[in-house]
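Long-time lurker, first post. I've been practising inverse folding by hand and with some scripts of my own, and I keep getting stuck on stretches where the structure tokens seem ambiguous. Below is the full token string for one chain I'm working on. Before anyone asks, I'm not after the true native sequence, just a reasonable design that respects the backbone. If someone could post their per-position residues I'd love to compare against what I wrote down in my notebook.
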């Protein structure tokens, strides 16, 4: 089942889409009446279902097969403004109010009532919207025998089987539709460009799928789908941009354990999983700060890999999502519906600075878009895209721009040029009305606040806790040591080493953990005193 961006449609467009679905599913077999704008007696549509309809069931109050009267109502909620909890609460209130209007105020004959909404229903026991709707239906069944709600998931299934309706609304275009039409308006060879972008995404999935741990003496790359750790982050509360202050404050306004937001927002505001910061609760501009070896680049690598996989290898994206600390009620299969789909570009700034220096003697543009077109895409999939092609892509699709490792550009003049290029890229994207998310990273040492001009939310990567360390060790050993006996021996050596508090304090970053495991793999005991190895 595909995931659709209903939140972008707005109330009127969502209502028209729901009526279009009813046309395809109800017109031609029974009497369907659609209502336009203005007073409608709490009805978007009514349908009289004849007894010979293949899905007919006799109304509970009837003693013979009589025509069954259906009433459809549509309710749209701005989830971005209300939040998941607020939208769910509003939906339950809407259902009760509309049932009262239908039965009492307007006295509409009704055997089967359907409320259509863009809000996904949650399955949390007792407090979830599905259980609450079941209770409302039970309370009202003496007046309306059958009451149901078609939520975002139900509508997604219907749209999967109704391409004519789906493609009539830009907000409902599927990833496959996006890739199939992404360059129809480009002036030349749209099919070639589509293949170029598809090829780049496939290259990205293959190239970014392995963790790079050569700095730790680990010679071979390891699959992120098996060893990635969803590390925790803490917010730099001293540097919260004003534009984000209300959103941050809302995370801790109420006791989360009593609300539907509880499964989504972490309870410990100093220990957010990176998946929440960059996917579930992502803001437009985010910055990761941490010392060497903490895994900044690995996190951004995983983020680009996940977004690329969603577009060209969905099953692999689900496999990647199993490595994340997802809230209760959000499975790896459902994660896709809770976060924006983006076309990723990951720029390693040290490589960009080197390229830019070499391009000084060349004519033509030398900015970020040119680098993306020529270096990230062109050299890897045999293409000749231009910077305008990149901005055309940004105009049509949400973009993720990752600027990784500013600290690795030591020259101040080079940094200044990079920041000017970033300004130019952002201004052009703004002119294209692009949906742009920027994720930046740097070590604190050597960072002089250059990215602060973009007003990002700054997050610091926490030390590895014991559970994360244990999880990483288990995954690493499973990949590196195939034999059960050798693996058990290695685990015992790790256990002995971790009995030393000094060693335990050292094993706080991914780099240090990998060094430790590399030593163990070579059948050496972890030293308790010679800690400089770490």
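-- Answer (accepted) --
I ran through it position by position. Result:
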């Amino acid at each position: 089942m595909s995931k659709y961006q209903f939140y972008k449609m707005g109330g009127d467009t969502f209502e028209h889409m729901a009526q279009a679905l009813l046309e395809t599913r109800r017109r031609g077999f029974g009497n369907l009446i659609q209502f336009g704008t203005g007073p409608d007696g709490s009805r978007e549509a009514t349908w009289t279902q004849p007894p010979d309809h293949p899905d007919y069931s006799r109304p509970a109050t009837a003693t013979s097969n009589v025509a069954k009267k259906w009433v459809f109502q549509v309710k749209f909620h701005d989830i971005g403004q209300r939040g998941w909890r607020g939208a769910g609460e509003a939906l339950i209130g809407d259902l009760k109010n509309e049932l009262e209007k239908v039965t009492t105020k307007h006295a509409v004959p009704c055997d089967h009532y359907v409320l259509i909404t863009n809000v996904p229903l949650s399955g949390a026991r007792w407090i979830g919207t599905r259980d609450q709707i079941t209770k409302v239906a039970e309370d009202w069944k003496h007046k309306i025998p059958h009451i149901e709600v078609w939520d975002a998931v139900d509508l997604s299934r219907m749209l999967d089987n109704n391409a004519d309706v789906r493609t009539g609304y830009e907000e409902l275009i599927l990833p496959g539709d996006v890739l199939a039409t992404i360059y129809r308006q480009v002036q030349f060879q749209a099919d070639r460009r589509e293949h170029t972008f598809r090829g780049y995404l496939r290259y990205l999935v293959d190239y970014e799928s392995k963790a790079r741990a050569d700095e730790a003496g680990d010679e071979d790359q390891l699959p992120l789908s098996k060893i990635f750790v969803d590390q925790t982050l803490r917010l730099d509360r001293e540097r919260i941009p004003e534009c984000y202050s209300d959103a941050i404050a809302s995370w801790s306004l109420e006791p989360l354990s009593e609300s539907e937001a509880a499964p989504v927002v972490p309870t410990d505001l100093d220990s957010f999983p990176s998946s929440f910061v960059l996917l579930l609760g992502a803001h437009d501009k985010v910055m990761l700060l941490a010392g060497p070896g903490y895994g900044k680049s690995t996190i951004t690598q995983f983020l680009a890999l996940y977004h690329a996989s969603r577009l060209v290898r969905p099953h692999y994206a689900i496999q990647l999502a199993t490595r994340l600390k997802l809230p209760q009620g959000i499975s790896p299969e459902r994660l896709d519906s809770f976060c924006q789909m983006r076309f990723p570009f990951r720029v390693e700034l040290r490589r960009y600075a080197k390229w830019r220096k070499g391009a000084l003697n060349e004519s033509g543009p030398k900015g970020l878009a040119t680098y993306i077109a020529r270096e990230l895409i062109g050299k890897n999939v045999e293409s000749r895209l231009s910077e305008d092609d990149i901005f055309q892509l940004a105009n049509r699709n949400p973009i993720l721009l990752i600027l990784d490792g500013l600290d690795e550009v030591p020259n101040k003049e080079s940094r200044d040029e990079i920041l000017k290029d970033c300004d130019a890229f952002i201004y052009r994207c703004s002119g294209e009305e692009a949906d742009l998310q920027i994720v930046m990273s740097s070590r604190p040492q050597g960072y002089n606040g250059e990215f602060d001009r973009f007003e990002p939310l700054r997050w610091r990567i926490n030390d590895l806790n014991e559970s994360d360390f244990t999880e990483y060790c288990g995954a690493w050993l499973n990949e590196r040591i195939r034999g059960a006996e050798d693996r058990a021996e290695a685990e015992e050596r790790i256990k002995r080493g971790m009995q030393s508090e000094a060693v335990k304090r050292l094993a706080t970053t991914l780099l240090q953990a990998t060094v430790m495991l590399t030593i163990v793999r070579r059948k050496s005991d972890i030293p308790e005193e010679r800690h400089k190895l770490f």
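A couple of notes from the structure itself: Residues 79-105 form the longest helix (27 residues). The CA atoms of residues 59 and 252 lie 47 Å apart. Happy to go over any region you disagree with.
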